[in-house]
Amino acid sequence: MSTPPAAANGRGGPPAATNGVDEPALLAVQGLNVALPAWADRERAVSDLSIQLLPNQIVCVVGESGSGKSVLARAIMGLLPAPHVHVTGGRVLFDGEDLLQATPGRMRAVRGARIAMIFQEPMTALNPLMTIGWQIEEMVEIHLVLGARERRARILALLEEVRLADPERILRAYPHEISGGQRQRAMIAMALILEPAILIADEPTTALDVTTQAQILALIKELQRKHQTGVLFITHDFGVVAEIADHVAVMRHGVLVEIGTAAQVLNAPQHEYTRSLIAAVPALAPRAKRVTDAAPVVLEVRGMTKTFASGAGWFSRARRSVPAVKAVELALRRGHTLGLVGESGSGKSTLARCIIRLIEPDAGSVRLAGIDLSALTRRELRPHRKHIQMVFQDPFGSLNPRMTVVQLIAQGPITHGVAVPEALARARELLQLVRLDPAAADRFPHEFSGGQRQRIGIARALALKPLLLVADEPVSALDVSVQAQVLQLLADIRDRLELTMLFITHDLRVAAQVCDEIAVMRQGEIVETGPTAAVFADPQHPYTRELLAAVPGRNWVPPRF
Amino acid sequence: MALGPKTAVYIVRRLAQAVPVVIGIVVLNFLLLQLAPGDAATVLAGEAGGAPPEYVAQLRERFGLDRPTHVQLLLYLKNVLSLDLGYSFRNSMPVSTLILGRLGPTLLLMGATLLASVLCGVLLGLLAATAVNTWRDRVISVAAVIAYATPLFWIGLMLILLFSIKLEWLPTTGMEDVVAFNEGWDRVLDIARHLVLPTVTLSLFYMALYTRMMRAAMLDQRGMDYVVTARSKGLSERLITYRHVLRNAVLPVVTMAGVQVGSLLGGSVVVESVFAWPGLGQLAFQSLFARDFNLLLGIFFLSACLVVLVNLAVDLVYLALDPRINVD
Amino acid sequence: MPQSFWRRFIRNRPAAVGLAFLVFVVVVSLGAPLFFAGDPFGIVGKPFLPPFGAYLFGTDSLGRDIAAGIAHGGRTSLMVGLVATIVAVSVGTLLGAFAGFYRGWIDDVLMRFTEFFQTIPTFLFAIVLVAIMSPSRASIVLAIAVISWPPIARLVRGQFMATREREFVQAAICLGMTDAAIIFRQILPNVLSPIIVAGSLMVATAILIEAALAFLGLGDPNAMSWGFMIGAGRSFLRDAWWLCAIPGIAILLTVLSINLVGEGVNDALNPRLRTL
Amino acid sequence: MSASTILNRSLFTALLAAALCAAPQFALAQKRGGTLVQITQPEPPTLASYLSTSGPIGQVTAKIYDGLFEYGFDTKPLPSLAESWTVAPDGKTVTFKLRSGVKFHDGKPFSSADVQFTIMEVLKKVHPRGSNTFKEVTTVETPDPQTAIFRLANPAPYMLAALSGYESPMLPKHIFGNGDIRSHEFANKPVGTGPFKFVEWRRGELVRLDRNPDYWRPGQPYLDRIVVRFIPDSATRTALLEKGDAHVAGFGAVPYNDVKRLAALPSIEVTTKGYEMISPVVEITINTKKPPFDNVKVRQAVSYAVNRKFAIDNVWFGNGRLATGAISSNFKASGLYSADVRNYSVPNAIEMANKLLDEAGFPRKADGTRFEIIHDITPYGEEWQRFGESVQQQLVQVGIKATLRYEDVPTWLKRTYTDYDYFMTSNFLYNLADPVLGVHRSFHSALIKQGTVFVNGSRWSSPQADDLMNKASLEPDAAKRGTLYAELQKITVEAAPIVWVHELLFPTILNKRYKDVIVSPIGIYGAYNRAWLDR
């Protein structure tokens, strides 16, 4: 096969298929086409894609959801979900052998031994019923003839290499018994135990907390250098790309739009799409505080405490009680946006839900505009609920799929006694406010994209003209370009309506962009609070410092165009 | 997972928690049966073809039926708590002796049914799932759908018609050939032959259910991420199926098997009546119509205990199969 | 949504066949007084006439028309199955909804209760209920409903527990909606499809239970039913096989078609499952 | 009751010597050995035949327990444990000479003390019919081990008809004398003097009886073993008999429709003998106190409407004889039966019924019905249900809309005999050995006893009928008795409190290889001591 033909969509010629180095490629994908089934929204998952991977090189394939980056990885491994998704053309040359032509038996010999793979979610990628040790051992057993003792020695050695403390215990453990970071380390150990030439990593850090992510990225890089492995690293996160990539390939709708060295692509992207993506990445530089401390306090939280009792069910394995929020104090002034940042399990969502009384706190008080909400019964609270509204994380789960968009937006006011026609009319106005087509009003949520749904969710919250808006990770489920739009919308509305906002996020870049002040949470406690700029510039608490240090690509400043 | 002290504590706790449920069953049934018109004394008099009223009154006194309901209930509960199930006046025997006599055949039939339905169901489900959309899968799936819709008693009759009456391959009914009075292995073999048709009848429905569950679970599990991992490790499809998927797919079947036990005893009333199997179901049926409530309550009590124990056993099996589940 | 549902349903061949047969059964049953006028217990000819002679399915031991019995028996079976299911599903849904939404003691009580029903041999319990109340259509419906609601309640409870955590429900709470509005207007429509599926399969089970009761002689003596016909024909199995075989096949086909329709509904309501 | 006036008579004097009866061995070359499998349906609840007269019990226990008498087909007593007996002229003393050398199965000897214990402590106290049968017995004297003298307050000739091993089993005092007789540990482990010993009872399955080698009739029994099987499923019962896996069954254990087929088999013999002391009758009891059945014309109309022939042919498949009235035609020989009554089985019966109903003031309404009733069905099994269904159809023809009600036995008994909450119900009663025992109970005003089952449930009564019955029970002369009963039959049939449908002819199915199984009027309630297998 010669050079691939020009890309069908005509947005610029196909990028060069080389990595600009003259070394012989370890892996060369040439003119790969992968067809999608008839019911899919486009014909091909991957169109006419060519890419090379050299030994001792990390190539990052970056793109938004649906760009075909994962399909590429699976096509190389021969793991496409046949028959619906299948290769229709091209070559995958590995050591000169076209893997697409290889027999199933040959592919099995290559997989694991020569090309290994790690996945986004190690919890589901590991068989829940088998011990970690057994699963790693299986990898060795099916490819090599080794004595049990040798196998074991090799596994233990590798577990130390991936820095798993107490490897004996890890070997005996089941996947659910160890932490996410440990699981991913074990996955890496399993993938690398046969010293494969290539490691394909499909979003391996996306499910991890930022600090763990940093460690895993470092580990992958270290091992890659040590074993001279070629790594095909798939990610959606430009921060991660900046952290790890030697070369970067940008994909969009199954087409490779740009490829080049990390420095080229990150700092001087050529393709328009790459530029728009990078432009959407929030800078880590904090915004200036917009408002003064003179504004009245809208929200005051005192001594908020919540402990989850567990062990109620037969099979729950959790400890007796889990303190989720420990005596938290907060105050939020009108027009301010407070960012609540922390890793998963830090209690930030629980805190928000306690404030809004979706969860009954064990102790503590919430005063909203002078009214002590915590003293009210659930029933008494109901008329006051309109003053605090919430925007949720999951654009798919937060809208009742059985209701039309106007119904969704109007149901709040209707509940609070607004006449139905008036509420519906107002709902249509709100659609314009959140920049949705008014024609969308009578459609159902499943007809919209994630970003559009988040807008609907925002409109629903705004329909009640709340004093306080609680936004719980409102953009973390969105692609980076959509994320930027929604953040922009939120900022605009906040300014226009003088909204007070409690903004929960795990992403320090987002927090930097949105929040006037931030509060850093860890294990149910706020360890540090202050104006965003101050905290970023001079973090007081070691944990805050750790968090900031872990932000991927923190040294990379996304260029502005 | 291992049978450590934690598991022992768990077992004890489970059993302790089952006590109120079982007592609740006894109390509710006791009260329910009080609503039944007529009593054991009438039945005995009726069976005798008539008896003078003094005789009936005497019977009532003897059975304690002349006392107020709450006194009868309290007495009964007191006895049950000391594991005394009372006396069946109609059968002139202690209830416990009667029940114990039927327990063996009942457990045999239940056990055989459970085993047959789970094993065959899992196997058929496996065969279907490993050949999705081929003729093998279709035949198995269609058979399962049909078996799932078949009335038990009817299929029992049809099996008798075919295998006993027409083909004369298997005995019609009963648990063993009573003319022969076989000993040793001959007897075992004989009972086994008698066991075939009732077991097939009783297990058909659940076999179909398990086949379908197993097939669905296998297909479900095949879509899981860990299967992709296994493929990426270079495992063959066969190894993936047997090493990884099978065990995961069996879990829902195990859960269902626990539920099956509860309904097995009820369903066996019909099958026992068709096949003249000397089990508890028939005994219960008879005791209801004889208003032999001590006996009926005893059977309810025992079957409740049985279900509790089997459910516990199923959970322990589950515990052994699924490390995610913990006794804490 | 309904349109695409219908399309998906009809494209599923077994479900379409099942539906067609079910419609046939319903038409024949509802039209029984038209097609087979008079009492199905009425004696029309000589006993034990074989099928496909003067009478489509022959006559039974008293000389009653079996075809008439099948048509009228279908009314009983469908009626009992349907009404028992409606009662069981209503009660089960209501209790399950409250237990799943409120949890706490309501849930505890409900769970104890369903545990109770799992521990008792349910069919035996149904027999006891019918025997105590005397066999009649009402008592049979009641008995079947009593033993059938707990699984529905468990199902609905589980669905409610899961859905209650969904963010749209939390949003509804934030909007200040009353609990009743949340339960019935927000959650219930979203968990309706598993309930519908379970309900349609329950109709099939209820028909089987009714048949088994009638077979054991606990049917309503004034209502012709398939189970009764099998029970009555049982003694003549050897000489007049059609007495048992025909109603048995009627039950089998009806239950089968209901199951197929139920599964078709399930697949059509959850199109995700079928794309695999 | 009836026996208040005493007529001085001595019908019974010393009868035949024992030797005469024990002599049938010469007839055929009986062979030893073999197992007889009897099917009994349903399974007896207990084996305490002294405590319950429930039908199936006797089918098992009569092989284990002997009685003082046996009976010939003419229903006359024959010696058994009693070698001979005398009834004093005043009828108030009955002396039994007991056979010597008889041993219980545990080896202990049988003596007059056992007779005394059985009569006075057991049958008179706890046997449902015994309290009636032995009502007049004041003491049983035991001058020596071989003599038992019954002292009676009044003569009770009917007592001598109730001394079979089935009806009045002789129990070992040394066993049943200890402990509560009502819940005795040996209730289900019977020990008697009979030809077969109890071995085991597998509940739900079988009772096994083995040959008693020390039986008092030398050489007997011939069979090694009797197995009584309990098979709930009727088709299976038939199959077992057909295959030769079971050898004898009676009392409707085999569905009536299968009888014809079995009878056609060369290996099988069907007999209706062996029920002469039982005389079962299928009938419909009408609640004469409940309108509209308080009107005799309505009852007669129903009696016309019920098609007896249809029931015999299509429900009981020919196993019946048209019933004409209160007394079974089995009593034709003894002259107590009379056919001189209103005949309801006439060709224009429906017409008659319609006419009577019109006269009674129940004209047909627009929909063709006159009134609605509920017809209860005897909960004894499928033919009863079919019978109910056919009656329902027949009533439609005369404009009576009947709804069927099928309840379980206790509910039905309570409804019929305690609550009297019914219109009409099918019913099944035995005439037993004498009308005094089996017929009077349905009509005598003294037997309208609420809560007592199988007595006068229709609650019809007339002083004239009471008088006839009182006289008949004490009348020694058979011819005069016949006249009294003829009158009774006429009155009762005319008043129609009961629709006598047919005299059920229980078919006993017998494998032809087994001989001398049914040798008495109590049929399979016999001891089987003479039964043998012809190989």
Largest sheet of chain D: 7 strands, mixed
The proportion of strand residues of chain C reads under 5%
Number of strands of chain D: 21
The portion of residues assigned to helices of chain C is over 70%
Question: How does this model look, in words?
Answer:
The complex is a heterotetramer of chains A (561), B (328), C (276) and D (535). Chain A contains 20 helices and 20 strands. Chain A has helices spanning 69-77, 104-110, 122-125, 132-143, 148-161, 167-172, 180-192, 210-227, 238-244, 262-267, 272-280, 348-355, 378-381, 405-415, 420-433, 450-462, 480-497, 508-514, 532-537, 542-550, and strands at residues 27-35, 44-53, 58-63, 86-94, 97-98, 115-118, 198-202, 230-235, 247-252, 255-261, 297-309, 321-333, 337-341, 363-368, 371-372, 388-391, 468-472, 500-505, 517-522, 525-531. A 6-stranded mixed β-sheet of chain A has the order 6-7-8-3-9-10, sandwiched between helices. A 6-stranded mixed β-sheet of chain A has the order 16-17-18-13-19-20, with helices on both faces. Chain B has a two-stranded antiparallel ribbon with strand order 1-2. The mean pLDDT of chain B is 83. Chain C is built from 12 helices and no strands. Chain C has helices at 2-11, 13-30, 32-35, 66-102, 104-119, 122-133, 137-164, 167-174, 179-215, 226-233, 242-269, 272-275. Chain C is 76% helix and 0% strand. Chain C starts with a helix and ends with a helix. The longest helix of chain C is centred in the first third of the chain and has 37 residues, at 66-102. The radius of gyration of chain C is 22 Å and the shape is elongated. Chain D is of the alpha+beta class and 535 residues long. In chain D, helix 14 runs antiparallel to helix 15 (478-495). Chains in contact: A-B, A-C, B-C, B-D, C-D. The interface between B and D is large, with 60 and 58 residues.
